[in-house]
Fold each of these.
Amino acid sequence: MVDIDISYSKKRFDEDGFVILRHFIDAEQVKEICRRAEIILATRTEYSDRYTNITKGLEKVDDYFEDLMRRGPQVAILTELLGTPPVPITSSFFTKNKTSEEVNPHSDAIYGGVIWVAIDPTNRENGCLHFIKGSHLKEEEFSYLRPHEPNDLSSHPDVVEAIMEPGDIVFFRPTTVHWSGPNHSGLPRRGFNCFYTGDPRNAGQEKELWKHLA
Ligand SMILES: O=C(O)CCC(=O)C(=O)O
């Protein structure tokens, strides 16, 4: 892991609703996450309600993911960013092999934080994540968005393309509007995500909510 300027990262997280930290997860761990997730995918246990390319609940199948959610290097950073220890809800694997596997603009939940780790290089061509900077502060304006409904925000003035390399991580507020476009590359684009709530009292409720979100 590289040196992290936590006060700058917190400023970005608070003002923009997300922050990308480069080379955060080392190459060995990226490989291990991918290897274990691919084993789970091969035997598919739990699907997202609407997406066949999103596999949730990895931690229910392999304790490695439970441990990673609870004790991975992201926990200390997220604690700083949220100002409170994050409570893990679930971990998911997002594969994107086809052009049809888009996730439309949406926000995830109200409380807590989300992390997304790039397993493959990701860019505009293969459907990288996009964020609307500052949208977590304008919840009402974006409350109409649903991940299964197309809404073109690609020319929004505050859009940011999260171009990432394997091991880069993005921390974001669940209320920050985000989406990922089609994959035109012909190669898989994979990402690993963990969702945390910031308040243990919300854990049950957020678990239910997350089942229905991308
Ligand atoms: O990886 C993707 O394509 C979408 C990720 C996403 O929507 C999320 O992590 O909440």
Amino acid sequence: MNSLNRAAIGMGIGSIVCTAWLVRITTGQAAFERKALDRCWQRIHDTAKRVNPDCVIWLSCNEVLDPILRDTSALREVDRMMDESGTPEAMRQIAPLLGPRTQQLLCLVGWADRHDARNILSDTGNEKYGIYGFSKPNADSLPLPVSRYLTRPLESFQGNDRNIAALARFFNREPFDFVLPPLLDSHYHWEGHSDLDEMIRLNEAHGIKLGVTGEGGKDWGLKNDVALEGFVERLRGKAVLKGLQVYGPDWPTRYSTATLTQLDYVAADALLFPDKEGRSVALWGAGVSFPDAEDFMERYVEYNVQVLNGPINIWSNPTFLPDSLQSRYSQLWTRGRMLKVIRAAARNHVAVELNSKYRIPSAAFVRLARHEGCRFCMGSNRHDKEPGDLDYSIRIYMECKLSPEDLYYPAGVRSK
Ligand SMILES: [Zn+2]
């Protein structure tokens, strides 16, 4: 009665996960427990496969070498077998006991410093194993967004975070010393409801600089020189870039060149869309719909080209569609329509924003735009307390294999 040995076995079936803790008190009970395990396994296996013959049964085990598991039908019949400790040597030892179709997985994240994801993934001898990781809830809850693991070197993370950072690189087929270039969130609307210095500090820690973007329309917001001068004054001495998001084709008439040149960039989108009667429709509003989607797209493309022909630096919210049309995005943004707006952006040297709020434009659009010579910038399109969410922007940057040379960095407004 002196050896207390525990083997934790989790059985995951589709969305159903059951976990059993087996406690072996003496070696004399091993045979009994193996029988119990076999009966338990048969019930799970038969039920799951009867309900769905194609289901995958995944056995997650923290002690794959536990003698209780030896010669059990569970090992022979399971679809996926994971070693939670992520020890390739242990997996090699049990390989002869597994069935011919069993896929082996290594868990490389979850046990903090006891896992060493980088080391295991660097060994080509481990290529045959599936890779997995989990993260238990911490005091500050969830792990960081995936993109944040790519903005700093692997070595700057500790414990589980370092292993997650290794997986983030491995899954993106990047080397372990990969680090994103310094990033700029050039679409941040700070309206004075948060401590800007704190926002700057929090984002700098993740390699993200902020571009504070004021907004000005015909008769609202930063609508003239006086308002724009005040905006520039509030940001004086802050380690941010200063931008202006403009609305309406007549925007250059509202400001003097002397005032505009105090900015780092001017951005515009086509979301205040002039309808056939000349009224402006806010495309992001609820319930906006167009009975003839093709007709809308033709006019929308033309309006985007008009916006892109203005003296702006950044095309914000590119390819945005109203809620009612978003499910048809790839169908409505035909190659011909994409090329029209892309070529207008390239011709006018306007950077295409990778927008993390609306998760636009698509990867297909970005690849085409890159091919046509466009450059890109990243925008959270968030207000006050929420700058720096560049998750989609970074995902697209990685997916489309963009490089630092593909990114636009503001260097002053264009002449009117
Ligand atoms: Zn905006």
